[in-house]
Each structure stands twice: as structure tokens, then as C-alpha cells.
Specification:
Elements (H helix, E strand, L loop, with lengths): L25 H6 L3 E8 L11 H13 L5 E6 L2 H13 L3 E6 L6 H20 L4 E7 L1 H4 L9 H10 L4 H22 L4 E6 L12 E5 L6 H9 L8 E6 L7 H4 L7 E2 L6 E2 L7 H18 L3 E4 L25 E5 L9 E5 L1 H15 L1
Parallel strand pairs: 1-2, 1-10, 2-3, 3-4, 4-5, 5-6, 6-7, 7-10
Antiparallel strand pairs: 8-9, 11-12
């Protein structure tokens, strides 16, 4: 959803203090985005066939650098080893890293301990010369128990949609936990700190160096995007678009961050709901449209959501084509679609090629 060991010496120079980065001033507007990249989500995997594998990570990070031509990667998800191994691989390739631990549905202290361990690793990378920013988390109301009622993410989403929650309590608890996370982040990491907020969240951005926003709006006019995003520049700090993207069907941009809900997971195997029309073109057009807006505003970074969703494979039968509901810019193809443990590979979608052309062009400007 729009949801380790120390690294040895590798020849990086000792990192200096963070250098100033562009905000919304005239110079930033002229040069476009500072960083262009993609979100890379990590987890244990839904099935043995989608379990995390270091070899896949190496291949994917290589493709993100060489084929997508991204200069940045958001390493997010849970599992300290998964996150730090991937961040180290990205650092070896010279990519800018946005490290964002998102352990969910666990006690608050466990989530903060997970953040602290990842933050300490990020600091080691930074001191060795890697380009790394640390996000203390993502949309805490979704992942941290007690902010919104619900035993897990899907229950919390349902309660938000049904209005069965206390908005005052939600904002109070959200601000409280963001404050705790910011203090933990500052205690272990001395580079730039941020948080990936949802649109409409009340965040005290004085706690952070970079304003982070998961952005899924859809407007018919570019001016509407600019007007909405300018509200996040009033803090006088760089604005990072920590997620932006859409699914792979006609009308997906209008569904925003809920495009994934077009799957009925109560059925075995899961089925697509209704009769959506698969459209890689819709996804590609939306991504480029938003990227143009972000470039025109001279924002700090934009991370397309997301590179891959291994548990949503593409199939020719629309009824079972879970890639329709995927935000991934590559599609997963199983060798044996009926075997959960089957090996798989990925193929670029139209959106991958569109972003690759744009990112490559920006790198030579």
C-alpha cells in the first residue's frame, strides 16, 4: 500500500555535514527536482515464492540504477536485515537513499526500536559518504496500533472509511507518536530527517528537516496540483514527494491511494472486482503528469510508488490479473501461475519505460 551488520570500508570519503538543498525558491525552480527515484518495498513475502531474496535485491537495485536511470531509491518496509542490506547495496551503486522503516501492527516500543536500529545503520552509511536521508516512518495512523481503532491495517482503513473513529483522538495520538519517533531518529541519525505523511495529516514539521508527503491526488488541471502542493511549502523547508503513483487500469488515478481495493481477497484465489480495463498507458500518463508538476515546482525529490509488488502477479485472465491493482511499474510473471511457490520474473510496464526516458533525460540536462 500507499505502506544488520555494519558496512565495511568501501572507499567512501568521510561525510561532511549536510549541505543545503533546494526549496521552492527561484534557483530550485530552474533546476527541477533534486532527486528522481522509485519506492522499493521490502517484507517477508506473502508466500515462499515471494519471500525476500538478497540476489533479487541486487538485481533490482542494479536495474533501478542502470535501466530506470533513477538517482534515488526509497528503501521501505520492515525487517532490519532486509532494509539495511538493500540500503547498503544502493549505497554501493551511488544512489541517494531515502531509508524509511515501516514496521507495523506491533507495540510502539518495538516500532521505535526497529527505527533506532535502522537509523544507526543509516548514520554509519552517511559517515562513510553515502547520500542518505532518514524517514522515521510512514502514515503512523495506518501502521501504529491505538491511533485509529483496529487490530490491523485493513480494520483501521475500514474504520476510517466508516467514520468509526475519533478524529480528535487520532490527531492527538498521531502527533504524540510522531514526536516520539522524531526524538528517536535525532538520537541515532545526524543527517536530514523526515516523515512520510498522508495528505491532510497534521504534522509539526519543525521537528524535521524535510517535509515528506505521500501524494495521490488527481486533477484535470495542472494548476490544481500546484495550488494543493504549495500549502506544504509554507514551512520554508524542502518538500519530498515520498510516494506518487497509480494502479494499472482505466480510472485508477481517480481511485487514488485506494486503487488496490479492486481485488476481492476473500476468494481463493483472489479475484478482480467488476470489469476494469487494464491500461498500462493510464498509469504511465499519470506518473509523467505528476512528475512534470514536481519538476516545475523545483521540489526536493519524487519517488514513484512503486517498483514491484511480488504478491500481485500479472495473468492474461483479467479476472485473476492482480497486477491491475498494483502500483508497480514492473509486472510480475510467475513461471507457474497456479503454484504459490513458483519462481517468477518481472517485465517493465509502459510506466517503467516512460519514467526511464524522463529520468535519463534529466540526468544529462
Amino acid at each position: 500500500m500507499g505502506v544488520a551488520t555494519a558496512v565495511g570500508t568501501t572507499g567512501w570519503a568521510t561525510a561532511a555535514e549536510p549541505t543545503p538543498i533546494g526549496t521552492s525558491d527561484g534557483n530550485a525552480r530552474r533546476r527541477g527536482l533534486t532527486h528522481r527515484g522509485v519506492c522499493y518495498t521490502l517484507g517477508a513475502g506473502e508466500t515462499p515464492g515471494t519471500a525476500w531474496q538478497p540476489a533479487r535485491v541486487r538485481d533490482d537495485v542494479r536495474a533501478i540504477q542502470r535501466e530506470l536511470h533513477a538517482d534515488s531509491i526509497k528503501v521501505t518496509g520492515d525487517g532490519v536485515q532486509r532494509l539495511t542490506t538493500t540500503a547498503a547495496e544502493a549505497a554501493e551503486r551511488g544512489l541517494h537513499i531515502w531509508l524509511e522503516p515501516t514496521l507495523g501492527d506491533q507495540p510502539e516500543q518495538d516500532i521505535l526500536d526497529h527505527l533506532a536500529e535502522c537509523g544507526r545503520f543509516a548514520e554509519r552509511l552517511r559517515r562513510q559518504g553515502a547520500k542518505v536521508d532518514l524517514s522515521v516512518g510512514c502514515e503512523f495512523w495506518l501502521f501504529v496500533p491505538g491511533i485509529v481503532p483496529g487490530a490491523h491495517v485493513l480494520e483501521r482503513i475500514a474504520n476510517l472509511q466508516n467514520g468509526t473513529f475519533d478524529p480528535v483522538h487520532m490527531q492527538r495520538e498521531l502527533r504524540r507518536f510522531i514526536g516520539r519517533a522524531a526524538r528517536v531518529g535525532r538520537s541515532v541519525f545526524h543527517g536530514r530527517l523526515s516523515y512520510a505523511s498522508a495528505q491532510g495529516d497534521e504534522v509539526d514539521w519543525t521537528l524535521f528537516d524535510i517535509v515528506g508527503l505521500n501524494y495521490y491526488s488527481s486533477f484535470p488541471r495542472r494548476s490544481s496540483y500546484v495550488r494543493e502542493l504549495e500549502k506544504y511549502l509554507r514551512w520554508g523547508k524542502p518538500l519530498a514527494i515520498t510516494e506518487f503513483g497509480t494502479c494499472t487500469f482505466v480510472g485508477a488515478p481517480e481511485a487514488g491511494g485506494m486503487g488496490w481495493a479492486t481485488v476481492d481477497y476473500t476468494k481463493d484465489p483472489p479475484e478482480i472486482i467488476g470489469n476494469p480495463i487494464r491500461s498500462e498507458h493510464t498509469q504511465a500518463v499519470y506518473l509523467l503528469e505528476l512528475l512534470d508538476v514536481f519538476e516545475s515546482m523545483g521540489l526536493y525529490s519524487a519517488m514513484a510508488f512503486e517498483f514491484i509488488t511480488p504478491d500481485q502477479p500479472h495473468r492474461k485472465e483479467i479476472r485473476y490479473d492482480l497486477d491491475l491493482a498494483s502500483y508497480g511499474i514492473v509486472k510480475v510473471i510467475k513461471d507457474n501461475p497456479n503454484d504459490p511457490e513458483s519462481d517468477w520474473h518481472w517485465k517493465p510496464k509502459e510506466s517503467f519505460h516512460a519514467l526511464a526516458r524522463r529520468y535519463a533525460r534529466a540526468a544529462t540536462d
